[in-house]
Amino acid sequence: MIAPSILAADFARLADSAAAVEGSADWLHVDVMDYHFVPNLTIGLPVVQSLRKATTLPFDCHLMIADPARWAPQYAEAGAYNVTFHAEAATDPAAIAKDLRAAGSRAGLAIDRDTPVEGYLDLLPHFDLLLIMTIKAGFGGQAFIPELLDKVRAARRHVDTGHLELRIEVDGGVAEDTIAACAEAGADTFVAGTAVFGAEDPAAAVRRLRALASG
Ligand code: DX5
Ligand code: ZN
């Protein structure tokens, strides 16, 4: 599954950017940053609510925000297909996952660059998706960190041996030269910002990425 990130799109033409990958992308990845959990600021609920009416693509909301217990369910209510929040920002991740599911979305748990995955493996049965950052969360266009794929491998082993129904998503620096390594490590869902919306033809870029991930 390929989820283009609108962080790399033209924020004045988000509906056009979504339309450019409708039919090629599986999900639209929406990065919400609050200037507190990360030093960057992007968009919030009003934009997600408006954009929801402008495309049929399912939304994969990635909340890089403080206090997800308070805000995350509202993204589910706004019609997000999946809502992912950061483990580092949550005191009771399983409770938030439960609230997200009750509000009508799937629940994702994100692990930032400096957070080991081991402490969260036992929580995975509460989730539909595990997002493993392959950069430090906060900005698009950063260089992929291959060492972080060790976390993907550990998660994949855990998911397979535990027979869990869970997507493993990678986010950050995923591009034509890195996506195959991500897939090999065990990721099945790929966020790509610059590699899609920085390309001349975003739809063609999505198709090339999918082909490279499928080996
Ligand atoms: C960064 C965001 C990413 C970002 C990735 O914190 O979570 O989704 O858009 O951008 P690229 O693909 O350019 O690294
Ligand atoms: Zn993201």
From TrEMBL:
UniProt keyword annotations, A-Z: Carbohydrate metabolism, Cobalt, Isomerase, Manganese, Metal-binding, Zinc
Listed GO MF terms: D-ribulose-phosphate 3-epimerase activity; metal ion binding
GO BP of this protein: pentose catabolic process; pentose-phosphate shunt
Enzyme kind, highest EC tier: isomerase
Binding site for a divalent metal cation: H29, D31, H62, D171
Residues the record marks as active site: D31 (proton acceptor), D171 (proton donor)
One cellular component term from this protein's GO annotations in UniProt: cytoplasm
Entry EC no(s): 5.1.3.1
InterPro entries reported for this sequence: Aldolase_TIM, Ribul_P_3_epim, Ribul_P_3_epim-like, RibuloseP-bd_barrel
Recorded catalytic activity of this chain's protein: D-ribulose 5-phosphate = D-xylulose 5-phosphate
Cofactor binding annotation: Binds 1 divalent metal cation per subunit.
HAMAP family in the cross-refs: RPE
NCBIfam families: PRK05581.1-4, rpe
Family: Belongs to the ribulose-phosphate 3-epimerase family.
Record protein name field: Ribulose-phosphate 3-epimerase
Highest classification ranks of the organism: Bacteria, Bacillati, Actinomycetota, Actinomycetes, Micromonosporales
Gene designation: rpe
